[in-house]
Structures are given as structure tokens and as C-alpha cells.
Design brief:
384 residues, alpha+beta, 7-stranded antiparallel β-sheet, 10 strands, 27% helix, single chain, 6 helices, PH-domain like
């Protein structure tokens, strides 16, 4: 008869209930992150298809436009920045991938603010209408363009200016500014279709990453380790202690008065005799101590604790073949990984490789700056 609690439910049913709650929570977190990214990519695709300006949009601005020049976008809160040490910036490209992390409202080292005003993107140039004057960056004269991945700063190099300069915008407007500047530059070089094709490819790749609803856990899948407080981790620690304690006792066995010397001498082969000379058997002396002038016998090698170490190098027992012994990093774990390991709440939303956090949970954020941030950091990396 199965052991039951006061509510009448067996421990297997309680285990299945906890597993299903955790799986559903993990799936919903991953699905929310996936939908957020999908909505952003589709918004950018629609914006890229309909992005255009008009001469009327520049009405009221203290900016003289050329005959075929139109205003595409304007932001009243922008700062002009300059770099003390001029770097070599990469050439402008048409990359439209959103930033990997949130931007911080800070000014990078070596960058100083020299003016503030309104940033205007036109079909021919980027303009800052500042309090000290106007600063232009014509698309046709751009030689370098760089967006800071951690700060809302965009640096630009042009042919007719020696010092590198650019704009610093509010963090909530930086991503929109960068995308629209890329569209304006693409129009200037007649490459708008390339931007649309890139967005279509990103949407198709992201559709393949849509998380699947996990299968429901059944009471029959519960293991006996679920009845132990701490689960598989407690069983693994107990097994390791059970293997290491006998090895430690063998190393410190006080019942061997010879300290293993007799075994060592008996195991040491005698030198090969010369031809024609009968071999002499050497019997180790046990009762009489060896003279002080004789060489000290070599002790037998002590058993190493690592000989009895788990072949998975401390990883829990699992049929997936995952261990801590090195090997190839696991970036696409099996769908049943959370059946064998204690996954973090938003496991499937991770974009890295499989790691174990310091609190024992398993995360898919290896290789990222925020890996296991809410679980005391990364402890070990899984391999296969």
C-alpha cells in the first residue's frame, strides 16, 4: 500500500503536481519572452515597409532643406558628443538586430558632451540643431558609424571632419533612432530591400525557436529520490560521502605496523641475474628492523579518492549523458532536461549554453553577463 498523507494523496502524486506547476511556469516565461521578441521584429518589419517622410514634416524647423530632401524623424532631446581620442570606426552597415541588453543612461569614458538640441533625420543627412549652432553628418560622406552596445551613444566619422562626433539620446528613444537612421542610410544607397529581407530572415529564424508546451508529468515517473529532502542532490552527496570515507580510512589504517613496506618489497621485482648465476630469492625481513644504512623501502601507492569518483564528475545521474567532465557545451538541451535537473523558472527563455548555478539549479544562460544572476552566479558548465 502506498504511503499517503493526511489529504489522501500519495507522494508520487504530489511530485507530479510540483513538476507540472514548474513546467507550466517555465513554459509561460519562455513563451512570454518569445512573443515579446516576435512582436518587436514584426513592428520593425512594418516600420521598414512604410517608413517615409515629407517636406511638410520639416515645417517650423530652423533647417533649410534641399529640393528633394524630406524630414523623416525628429527628436527634441539630444546631446552632441565628441571623442577625445579618435578611434577608427567600422564602416556603416545595414544591421538591424535589436540590442542584446538594455542600455544604461551613462556616458562612456573618453566621450564629452559639447552641445544639446534637436536631432533630425532627413533623407540626405543627420542634423543636430543645437544651441551653439548646427552639426551635419551627410550619409554620402560617412566613413564610420558605431552604436555603443551599453550606452545610448552613436558615434560617426565623416570625410570633412577630423574629430569623431555623434549623438547621445535618451535610453527609451535610442533603439528607435538607430533603426530609423539605418533605414535612412539604406534609402540613400538604395538598399531598402536588403533591410526588409534581413528582417524577414530574422522573423523566420525566430519562429523556429517558439517554445513547445511541455508534456505533463505522471505519478509513474516519480523516482524514490523525490522522497528524500533535497531530492537527487542529497542522494548524490550521500553517495559521494559513502565512497570517499572508506578511501580515507584505508589511508589512515593504524592496524598495519609495517606501513605497507612488506607489500612494497614483495611486489618489487629483483634485478635480472647475470648469465650462469643462479637467481637468489630475497625474502623481506619483518621481525628485525632494517639497518640505518639500508635504503628506506618504498611504500605502496595509496588508493586515490578520485578512483572512486562518479564518472559524470559530480553531475546527477541522467540518461541524457550530461556531465561536468568538459566536452562540448550544450546549447540545445533535450526537451526532457527539466525532468532530470532542477531548472530555473525561465529556463527556456535563456540564450546560451547549459550551466549549473551556485544554488544547484540549472540555467540556459551560460556565456552571458547575467548568467545565473538570480541564483548566486555560475558554478559549473555542463558538457556531453
Amino acid at each position: 500500500m502506498a504511503k499517503t498523507d493526511s489529504t489522501g494523496s500519495t507522494w508520487r502524486y504530489r511530485w507530479a503536481h510540483r513538476q507540472n506547476v514548474r513546467r507550466v511556469s517555465t513554459f509561460r516565461g519562455a513563451e512570454t519572452a518569445w512573443r515579446r521578441r516576435d512582436d518587436e521584429l514584426r513592428r520593425l518589419r512594418a516600420l521598414a515597409a512604410d517608413f517615409q517622410g515629407s517636406a511638410a514634416a520639416g515645417a517650423g524647423l530652423p533647417l533649410e532643406l534641399a529640393g528633394d530632401e524630406v524630414v523623416l524623424w525628429a527628436l527634441p532631446a539630444a546631446q552632441l558628443v565628441e571623442v577625445r581620442h579618435t578611434p577608427v570606426l567600422p564602416a556603416p552597415d545595414l544591421a538591424v538586430a535589436p540590442p542584446s541588453g538594455p542600455l544604461r543612461p551613462r556616458r562612456p569614458d573618453g566621450v564629452r558632451v559639447t552641445d544639446a538640441g534637436m536631432a533630425v533625420i532627413t533623407s540626405r543627412r543627420l542634423v543636430l540643431l543645437g544651441g551653439r549652432g548646427r552639426r551635419d553628418w551627410a550619409y554620402g560622406r560617412m566613413t564610420g558609424l558605431s552604436h555603443d552596445p551599453a550606452a545610448p551613444v552613436t558615434l560617426i566619422q565623416v570625410l570633412d571632419r577630423r574629430r569623431t562626433s555623434g549623438l547621445m539620446l535618451p535610453t527609451d528613444a535610442a533603439a528607435d533612432f538607430r533603426f530609423k537612421l539605418t533605414l535612412a542610410f539604406a534609402d540613400a544607397i538604395e538598399q531598402r530591400p536588403a533591410v526588409l529581407a534581413q528582417l524577414d530572415e530574422l522573423i523566420a529564424e525566430h519562429a523556429q525557436l517558439k517554445p513547445f508546451r511541455p508534456a505533463a508529468a505522471t505519478p509513474a515517473q516519480a523516482r524514490l529520490s523525490a522522497r528524500v529532502p533535497g531530492g537527487r542532490r542529497t542522494v548524490a552527496v550521500a553517495a559521494a560521502v559513502a565512497l570517499l570515507v572508506p578511501a580515507a580510512l584505508v589511508e589512515s589504517d593504524p592496524s598495519d605496523p609495517t606501513g605497507g613496506a612488506e607489500v612494497a618489497v614483495a611486489a618489487t621485482p629483483a634485478p635480472s641475474p647475470s648469465p650462469g648465476v643462479a637467481p637468489v630469492l630475497v625474502r623481506p625481513a619483518v621481525s628485525a628492523p632494517a639497518p640505518r644504512t639500508s635504503p628506506k623501502p618504498t611504500k605502496a601507492p595509496r588508493p586515490s579518492p578520485t578512483a572512486s569518483r562518479d564518472p559524470r564528475c559530480g553531475a546527477p545521474d541522467n540518461p541524457l549523458g550530461y556531465d561536468f567532465c568538459g566536452g562540448t557545451r550544450i546549447r540545445r538541451p533535450a526537451t526532457e532536461v527539466c525532468d532530470w535537473f532542477d531548472c530555473t523558472p525561465e529556463f527556456w527563455a535563456g540564450r546560451g549554453y547549459l550551466v549549473q548555478c551556485r544554488d544547484g539549479s540549472v540555467s540556459l544562460t551560460g556565456g552571458r553577463s547575467n548568467a545565473c544572476a538570480e541564483h548566486r552566479g555560475v558554478r559549473r558548465t555542463f558538457g556531453k
